[in-house]
């Protein structure tokens, strides 16, 4: 029984050290559209009709500010509110002015106790009149966010027993790939075991065409953007992937294809051997810079 029903991974808020440079990169190199002309506040970027899938904030240090999931309905939001309070978590409503800037409906935030990452849950976001242009890459969605965490077992347990996530697969002792139920995607969130603090591992964008992976490889190389892993195929979700670095050194991934799970009668999670071939069945290995940069912003209470 899940405590509340997710619709999908909604957006990720990232801290970047040079907002203009990052906006250029996320539009001209990654292929996102700006949702509104850049102003004094954060930059809103999208890869679909939602007002934003990535929000970039100027900051002294690169990293992840929060991850946001959309719930199925306002009724689910009420279930979530009650459930999170019953866990003893401090749950805060998104301030009205911020909701207005985010063009979102009802929403709340809390800090996941093992990683320190702020999770946001919301119900509605402005739907843009013009479709996402897919001018550079046929991105179909913000795919997933991955953290590296020291309290790997505890966080896996918290996400699955308290927050309504299900493990789709483990790579033994190393990674847990989690779906936000009843969303069918193999994972919208994942965690890796870290021995060196908690941090962002990567942000993924799913593409609808395998050619996008090859075309991106050539585009990134031409512009001297570091490609840090792949192209290859992940064993857990079966996707074809490519990782590269944003201007702050944070890892981004394009991937094509992903196993989907039915709401009822889903297969059990597999325990995959922690072998390099589990991460890439084609045999490439990650560069040292893969998945290293990205502080988790501690929540500031006002
Ligand atoms: C190497 C990383 C953590 C990884 C491994 C597997 C998948 C997948 O099965 O889709 C990923 O998306 C990853 O980012
Ligand atoms: Fe990934």
From TrEMBL:
It comes from Hydrogenophaga aromaticivorans. SUPFAM superfamilies: Glyoxalase/Bleomycin resistance protein/Dihydroxybiphenyl dioxygenase. This is 2,3-dihydroxy-p-cumate-3,4-dioxygenase. Belongs to the extradiol ring-cleavage dioxygenase family. Keywords: Aromatic hydrocarbons catabolism, Dioxygenase, Iron, Metal-binding, Oxidoreductase. InterPro entries: Glyas_Bleomycin-R_OHBP_Dase (IPR029068), Glyas_Fos-R_dOase_dom (IPR004360), GlyoxalaseI/FosfomycinResist (IPR050383), VOC_core (IPR037523), Xdiol_ring_cleave_dOase_1/2 (IPR000486). The lineage of its organism: Bacteria, Pseudomonadati, Pseudomonadota, Betaproteobacteria, Burkholderiales. It comes from the Bacteria. One of its GO terms (molecular function) is ferrous iron binding. Residues 8-124, 141-257 form the VOC domain. Its cofactor is Fe(2+).
């Amino acid at each position: 029984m899940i405590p509340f029903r997710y619709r999908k991974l909604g957006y990720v808020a990232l801290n970047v050290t040079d907002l203009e440079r990052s906006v250029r990169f996320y539009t001209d190199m990654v292929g996102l559209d700006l949702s509104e002309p850049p102003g004094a506040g954060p930059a809103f970027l999208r890869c679909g009709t939602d007002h934003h899938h990535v929000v970039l904030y100027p900051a002294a240090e690169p990293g992840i500010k929060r991850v946001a999931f959309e719930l199925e309905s306002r009724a689910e939001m009420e279930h979530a509110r009650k459930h999170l309070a019953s866990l003893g978590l401090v749950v805060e409503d998104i301030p009205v002015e911020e909701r207005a800037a985010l063009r979102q409906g009802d929403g709340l935030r809390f800090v996941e106790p093992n990683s320190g990452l702020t999770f946001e849950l919301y119900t509605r976001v402005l739907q843009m009149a013009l479709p996402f242009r897919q001018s550079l890459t046929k991105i179909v969605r913000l795919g997933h966010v991955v953290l590296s965490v020291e309290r790997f077992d505890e966080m896996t347990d918290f996400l699955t027993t308290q927050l309504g996530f299900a493990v789709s697969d483990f790579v033994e002792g190393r990674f847990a790939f989690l779906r936000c139920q009843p969303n069918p995607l193999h994972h919208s969130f994942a965690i890796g075991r870290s021995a060196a603090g908690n941090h962002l591992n990567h942000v993924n964008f799913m593409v609808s065409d395998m050619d996008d992976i090859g075309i991106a490889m050539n585009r990134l190389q031409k512009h001297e953007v570091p490609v840090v892993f792949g192209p290859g195929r992940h064993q857990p979700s079966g996707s074809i992937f490519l990782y590269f670095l944003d201007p702050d050194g944070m890892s981004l991934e394009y991937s094509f294809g992903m196993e989907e799970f039915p709401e009822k009668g889903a297969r059990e999670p597999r325990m995959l051997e922690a072998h390099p071939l589990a991460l890439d069945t084609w045999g490439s290995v990650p560069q040292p810079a893969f998945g290293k940069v990205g502080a988790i912003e501690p929540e500031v209470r006002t």
